[in-house]
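Q&A FORM
Asked by: J.P.
Topic: structure of ABC transporter permease

PROVIDED:
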Amino acid sequence: MGVSTSVLLATALALALCLTFTLALRRAWSIPKWLDPAVALVRALLQLAILASVLSVAITNVAYVFLALLVMLGFGIWTSSRRLGGDARTVVLVAISMSTAVAVSVLTVFLTGALSFTGQNLLAFGGIITGNAMSVVTLSGRRLSQDVAQHWGEIEGWLGLGATNRRAVRDIASRAMREALIPNVDQTRVTGIVTMPGAFVGAVFAGASPLEAGRFQLLVLAGIMATGTIAAALIMWGSDPIAAGRPGRAENIKDPHVG
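REPLIED BY: S.T.
REPLY: Here is the structure written out as tokens.
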């Protein structure tokens, strides 16, 4: 079904107004790189246009869906790695963490038969948890480096007592992991009360019964929490926080322009 010109114009107006509010407030509060949301929105527009074109063909073939998910995963790994420094070791660690976490959740849901193995289900479930895995990896990695730098005296004390690097930062890593996972837990806690989840609404609009849509949403929420926890745990386990968080190093973690 096509979209009328009037609807397209109304959409453009709404987007422009929302973006104006965002940029005006960021500028007023002197937020660094205040134009980032504009760049991000333009990128989203282009990427969604490409995605819509690809999905019109890919959704009918599971092999194409796998390829689409691999591309999404690759971009997620690239984005998160840049946020955490971008060196080769970080890229490998992020790739292993995200890939393992996504694979475990996808295999669990489909091998148990909770979701039928179709291109639509694979793309919807896999796409959502991949995006959340990227966010958790970025948040947990950055928080770990920052917290290690802030508590460097405590860590030196542990090291002076003969503790291993891993033991010296264990409590700090635990807090960093917990902080990174708070959004996922809160999202699950308030679903249906504060938020109307996209997967649920999309399933209902696609013709599924509210019961079936709710079942799918619960699987998505469980998958998000499992994927995020696995990814964060692997980042904590594989990081070298002593080197990454040493005072002067944490400040050098890249925060690149969205473009």
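FOLLOW-UP: The CA atoms of residues 141 and 256 lie 15 Å apart.
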